[in-house]
Structures are given as C-alpha cells and as structure tokens.
Write a structure and sequence with these properties.
Blueprint (H helix, E strand, L loop, with lengths): L2 H37 L3 H6 L1 H20 L3 H29 L1 H24 L7 H21 L5 H24 L7 H27 L1
Helix pairs in contact: 1-4, 1-8, 3-4, 4-5, 5-7, 5-8, 6-7, 7-8
C-alpha cells in the first residue's frame, strides 16, 4: 500500500469509528432525556431512593462493560440503554427543579457542555496532540475529586472550588477520550466502550456547569 493510500485508509478508520462513537453517544443522551422526562412522575420517590437509583445505574454500567468485553454485544447494548435511562431518572429531579426555577441555567449548561465537546474534538482531530501520558494523571485527579465529593456529603463546605476542580478534570478527560477514539487502530471495535466514556464526560460536565451557572444566578 502506498503511503498516501495508507494515510487515506487511516483517516477513513478514524472517521468511521468517530461516527459510530458519536452515534452511540447521541442515542444515550436521548435515552437519558427520556429518563429525565419520566422522572417527573416519580420525583418524590426518586429523591428518597436516590442511593438505590445510583446503585442501579452503577450496576448497569459495570454489567455493560462486562458484557461488551465478553463479546456479548447485543446484551451490552441493552444494558447500556437501561443505564442511560436510569441515569436520566437519577439526575431528573435535579434537572427538572432547575428547569422550573432557572430554565436558562439548564440551557446555558447544555450549550457549554456541547461547546466544550466541539472544541475538544476539533483540537484533537486537527492537531497531532499526543495525550498518551495524560490518562494516569487525569484518573488520579478524578479519584481526588470523587473523594472530595464524598467528603462533602459529611463535611459541609463551599463546593465552588471542588466543582471548578472537577470541571477541569472532566474537560481534560473529554480531550483524552476523543484522543482515544482517534488513536484506535484499524480493526478495533470499541465504539460502545468509548461512547460510554464520552457519555460520562458529557453528563458530569453538564451537571458541574449546571451547579456553577446556578450558583452564579443566586
């Protein structure tokens, strides 16, 4: 294969994988929106049982990853769909409360998240940025942020710095996950797993921006 043909083949692989990843991401966000809508009918129960819904979502996420890595792709798709809807049920009461009190805050958070994704994808795909070494640092920072979030449940303190820190971490993870999509080799078929990573980036960025914009309004 000639050099330019090899380059064209690589570009086609990247575009094909990216389109599949973004397709799964779009489907998951639609399903989460459905979950948010459905949560309106059960808001009180979901608030009381938030820990159970969170546990169910976590279990579905782990099950999805296990099924996909075990080669049971149809099962993984079904579990992924259930996970996305459950996430919508989990965040639904919060999002609906903001929609009722500060609807523009939800719109700004959504636009901000989409903007971050667009910028991240553009930079990653238009440059030769190599983020191979970023993974361990971002994962470590995420663990610190998770510990801080858990501590905030028991120790009251101003969450502004924590939200800003987590926002930076998830922006970094968004860049890193788009780079992972770009770095996939021909023949790899990790579209669903990569979509899950980007979905979690999107959801967490949206919630962080929702809190930050909501705080700015108060």
């Amino acid at each position: 294969m000639l050099p330019h043909e090899a380059l064209q083949s690589q570009v086609q692989v990247e575009r094909s994988l990216l389109s599949r990843v973004l397709g799964w991401l779009a489907v998951s966000l639609v399903l989460t929106t459905v979950g948010v809508y459905l949560s309106g009918s059960y808001a009180d129960q979901l608030v009381r049982l938030w820990w159970l819904v969170a546990l169910a979502a976590f279990g579905l996420l782990i099950a999805t990853q296990f099924a996909e890595r075990s080669g049971r792709h149809p099962l993984a798709i079904g579990l992924f769909a259930a996970f996305a809807v459950t996430e919508g049920l989990f965040i639904g009461p919060l999002v609906l409360a903001y929609l009722q009190a500060q609807p523009d805050t939800v719109g700004n958070a959504l636009l901000g998240t989409v903007g971050i994704f667009f910028v991240a994808a553009s930079i990653v795909y238009m440059t030769s940025l190599n983020m191979a070494a970023w993974g361990k640092w971002l994962f470590g920072a995420l663990i610190v942020g998770i510990i801080g979030s858990v501590a905030a449940i028991f120790i009251p303190f101003d969450r502004l710095l924590l939200d800003v820190f987590l926002g930076v971490v998830f922006i970094g993870l968004t860049f890193f996950d788009f780079w992972r999509v770009k770095a996939q080799r021909a023949g790899d078929n990790d579209a669903l797993m990569l979509a899950i990573s980007l979905y979690l980036d999107f959801l967490n960025l949206f919630l962080i921006l929702l809190r930050l914009f909501g705080r700015a309004r108060n």
